Amino acid sequence: MNATPKRVEHQLTDKGYVPVYTTAVVDQPWDSYTDEDHAVWATLFERQREVLKGRASDEFLASQEAMGMTPGHIPKFSDLNPILREATGWELIGVEGLLPELDFFDHLANRRFPVTWWIRKPDQLDYLSEPDLFHDLFGHVPLLMNPVFADYMAAYGRGGVKAHGIGPEALVNLTRLYWYTVEFGLIRQPDGLRIYGSGIVSSKGESIHCLESDAPNRIGFDLERVMRTRYRIDTYQKTYFVIDSYEQLMEATGPDFAPIYEKLAQLESIPAGDVLESDTVFNKGTGEGWLDEGGD
Ligand code: HBI
Ligand code: FE
């Protein structure tokens, strides 16, 4: 069997036809991975581990090692699951790709992390428009070994199920929280800012850009500020939000979000590149290279 994703259908959206995957949970077809698939994993793994030295958070790097992830072969979910269950009660399930949000939230709320079972092709090493196995397994899974972050992700899932019941605006607010923390978050360490966001750690260019370019803003995390801030999915971030600790994330998801959603519904969203008077600013970006399309 050739390891390529089975797309179920394409929905026509304002971005053209987008693949809508089944919500089916699939077993990782580990025996169907080709030598090319394993080589893509090895290349990306070794390259990213090199780039992330001194750039990724200590917790991320230590957790990845604690899981026993190595470049040699694509890891087996069945090897990682006992380790992960023991550490924080999480487990990996195989999926075709992006899930409808409610399905995704429900998995997180039950400590199941959906990992795309297929890996990108050699000509897609530097950019992929949707999460593949490398993004999910190398990027998202290691921090699930950290009890506080693991609790945050489960709390996020519960919040997502609730937000889905409240309505689309609440969902947008919550998706921004995920975007600016789980996907593109930075954390402050005594020795400087470091990366913990999965969307960054799985990207060589953005691993360097997010910390070393003068273009982006780097602003202290604030829950409501993040929930109001728009983002684009196809460029480097204009703003990165910095947490002091994973505990700060967990505390932020403590309160019931319903009153926050109501408050935010009365406020304008914030363009991705803006800096506010009330922001804790680590770096006010030059904005160099920003594609000014639609002001997002
Ligand atoms: N589905 N498989 C998968 N992985 C994700 O990271 C994911 C998803 N569906 C929706 C989604 N992420 C984001 O919209 C979250 O903010 C909900
Ligand atoms: Fe992701």
Automatic annotation (TrEMBL):
Q: Give the protein's cofactors.
A: Fe(2+)
- MF terms in GO: iron ion binding; phenylalanine 4-monooxygenase activity
> A single GO BP annotation from the record?
L-phenylalanine catabolic process
Q: Does the keyword rRNA-binding apply?
A: no
Matches recorded under SUPFAM superfamilies = Aromatic aminoacid monoxygenases, catalytic and oligomerization domains (SSF56534)
Q: Which family does it belong to?
A: Belongs to the biopterin-dependent aromatic amino acid hydroxylase family.
Entry binding sites for Fe cation: 135, 140, 183
Its signal peptide is none
- Which top EC class is given? oxidoreductase
Q: Please name the InterPro entries in this protein's record.
A: ArAA_hydroxylase, ArAA_hydroxylase_Fe/CU_BS, ArAA_hydroxylase_sf, Aro-AA_hydroxylase_C_sf, Aromatic-AA_hydroxylase_C, Phe-4-hydroxylase_mono
Q: Which UniProt keywords apply?
A: Iron, Metal-binding, Monooxygenase, Oxidoreductase, Phenylalanine catabolism
Taxonomic lineage of this organism? Bacteria, Pseudomonadati, Pseudomonadota, Gammaproteobacteria, Lysobacterales
Q: What is its EC number?
A: 1.14.16.1
| Protein name per UniProt | Phenylalanine-4-hydroxylase
- All copies of the Biopterin-dependent aromatic amino acid hydroxylase family profile domain together span 1-296
**Pathway, per record:** Amino-acid degradation; L-phenylalanine degradation; acetoacetate and fumarate from L-phenylalanine: step 1/6
**Listed Gene3D superfamilies:** Aromatic amino acid hydroxylase
| Catalytic activity as recorded in UniProt | (6R)-L-erythro-5,6,7,8-tetrahydrobiopterin + L-phenylalanine + O2 = (4aS,6R)-4a-hydroxy-L-erythro-5,6,7,8-tetrahydrobiopterin + L-tyrosine
- Xref: Pfam families: Biopterin_H
